[in-house]
Amino acid sequence: MTCHPVTLAIHGGAGAIARDGPAREAARHADLAAALRAGHAVLAGAGAAVDAVVAAVTALEDSPLFNAGRGAVFTQAGTHELDAAVMDGATGRAGAVAGVTNLKNPVSAALLVMRNSPCVMLCGRGAERFAAEHGAEIADPAYFFTDERYAQFERARKRRRIELDHDGAARGPGNDAEDGTVYGTVGAVALDRAGNLAAATSTGGLTNKRVGRIGDSPIIGAGTYADNASVAVSATGVGEVFIRAVVAHDIAALVRYRSVSAQQAAEEVILRKIPAAGGRGGAIVLDRSGNLAMVFNTEGMCRGAIRADGNPEVAI
Amino acid sequence: MTCHPVTLAIHGGAGAIARDGPAREAARHADLAAALRAGHAVLAGAGAAVDAVVAAVTALEDSPLFNAGRGAVFTQAGTHELDAAVMDGATGRAGAVAGVTNLKNPVSAALLVMRNSPCVMLCGRGAERFAAEHGAEIADPAYFFTDERYAQFERARKRRRIELDHDGAARGPGNDAEDGTVYGTVGAVALDRAGNLAAATSTGGLTNKRVGRIGDSPIIGAGTYADNASVAVSATGVGEVFIRAVVAHDIAALVRYRSVSAQQAAEEVILRKIPAAGGRGGAIVLDRSGNLAMVFNTEGMCRGAIRADGNPEVAI
Description:
2 copies of one chain form a homodimer. Chain A contains 8 helices and 13 strands. In chain A, the strands form 2 sheets. Chain A has an 8-stranded mixed beta sheet with strand order 4-3-2-6-5-1-12-13. Chain A has a 4-stranded antiparallel beta sheet with strand order 8-9-10-11. Chain A has one domain (7-315): Glutamine Phosphoribosylpyrophosphate, subunit 1, domain 1, CATH 3.60.20.30. By secondary structure, chain A is of the alpha+beta class. In chain A, α3 (106-116) packs across α4 and α7 crosses α8 (262-276). The interface between A and B is large, with 48 and 48 residues. β7 of chain A pairs antiparallel with β4 (121-123) of chain B.
């Protein structure tokens, strides 16, 4: 049996680098490393790439420091609406949930949709009901309340009003980047020993977003995509531009149809097309040989990778 | 000014050919022709492709004979959940609504999202509230009740039970094709005088579908995609396979990156990849030279096209 070079990479969002002090920075590094170890444990045990990405993203969802699961941002209504997706590059199967409010780990719910339903994408109450029926852990709304996200929400509401007063123009959803914080969507891509690829992404979306808004993360082809014939991709950034540009599938299509490398494809889309369309963000891209690209057009992107040796490497 | 060969094409779903008598067949032909004329009127008046596809799809939504708007199928809960999307190939802008229950014309709501919101995709109540705020016409649930769809729903529920008793295996959402009816999702692609492409798709989804299920129609890249640099695509079929295969963007990527024709790209995806992935359906594809492909791997696909001469051509 050929052993493929097991690889797991994660991101914790792209944007302006958070300048919130060394203690939080150290905590963020520690949580990224822990997520890498969680995913690596699956791969080292000859587990599937799809289970490794879900393990890594679950760990990031459980951290209050990223905009997914526990640390999700607030909607305009002061609520939380979470989106997540997972895709298995070996089978082409995928699962996604959008606009869920009470699931502790949206990425696990996405995996349940993939494994236990004929559907790919479920939203809102229907998604919550399906996940609950299949044993997903339910969380109280209070679980998603963090002081920092609430302060961000308050600032976004205030700034929005001020800006409206000032220039009279309609503004997009709250822009955390101006706030010195990061977007914080989380995601993972993995290659397992059997040579299978997988990708997963999870997010709380944009601070102060409109209720019902779905970003790119749970959309197969936009924020999440995996195909053994090309690459696994998890993206993060201004979701609307990423949806229109079908970012994850476009990177995969360049690899497949133009025979360029994962790095070249990621650069073409993230460094050329997305800025030209007025978008900001990044993506992590992995191929079956273990070639990994981590590309962003923002000031920074929380990211990390772990290989067969099991040593997590983290950067921002 | 170069005048591009204005073209509008529509579909009313792919599947088994409905054998419901000559009267309904004639009515279906008439409604397809009327939708073509509605879109053509926009193009003939030097209107934009995006307005032409919305006009054509609106006409099909207003017909009780297609599974979109008025004639939408029933969910498991005996309700209606409608999905629609529109994309402008000139600007790359797009709008979509998913899981809406009370909007008379979901495709118009998708256009409102595109034009009046920083979002691309809105779902459920949030989408309904946004559309209502922006003047969308609200419909009573009774508006979507048709005897034929209700009978289909009853048959699907019954058959589902029987099949479960028989083979014990979990089944996908109701399969209308076995019922001698068509899927009935509707869509349009257009090329306007200025050389701009656009696509729109609208659907009620699958009969007896799970509440909260989102199919490929409202997903940019899956059921709907348009880019002046390649093609405009509207797809119809088993949504889950179409989402996983990112059908509309894959067709566009083949045109753009492999320089094949719209016809070759549509055949590669609809006749080779989709059946290999266990999927059924079709797509209509249009390029900036007016080359049109209407490809399906099912027994039939309701479809039609109209060119500069204004004579609608319809086939099933």
